[in-house]
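Researcher: Good morning. I'm working through a list of sequences from a screen, and I'd like to move beyond sequence-only analysis. For each chain I'm collecting a predicted structure so we can compare shapes side by side. This is the next one on the list. No need for commentary yet; just the structure.
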Amino acid sequence: MADDVDWFGVRIGKSGGLPNPIHLLNDGSALSEIDVEYVLGYSHGDLHVDNIVVPLIDGRPDFSQIRLIDLSGYSSSAPLSRDVATLLLSLILPTVRAKASSSGDMPALVRVLIDSDLSHADLDGSAIAQSVHRVRAAVTRELDNELKRIFQLQYLLSLLAQAIIYTSYSNVGEVGRRWYFGLSLEVVRKVNEMVDFDSE
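Model: Good morning. Structure tokens for this chain:
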């Protein structure tokens, strides 16, 4: 995770390697010359699981009465993928903490977060993977193919940004922070497949 490394020597596609995700906002970075179309609209701005309140009626959750709280980051014209990425990474946080503490690997979780093909029959059967799958399916269900393509790239870039933010969280531990950095590299790999970075 050294911040003085611009490129990692991992060969994929036509690229000579993967750019360091932490440097992608720098002038001259792999993404600096790429124009990205994106879908915008009403965005919560910090949509994580602790900002979603579901009341209990007679001891049962009443999902028709969901409330979103902490709207300080709300915008009427923000990238809509930001909320999806923020929600999904907060949803998997307990799993990452548990797996990181046991040094378990989570390739299925990485795959379900980044893969645009939501028809996998071999998805991890865990409740968390199913939840991620359902959120992503609900978001893209009504989009035509062109909007799905636009949204997938936008979502990946939002996921990348959020994964980098998670590398700064002390409550995931060193192994967890490395996992989120590894996730950001996998997201960069997927973005590279879509836009073909120019390598050095």
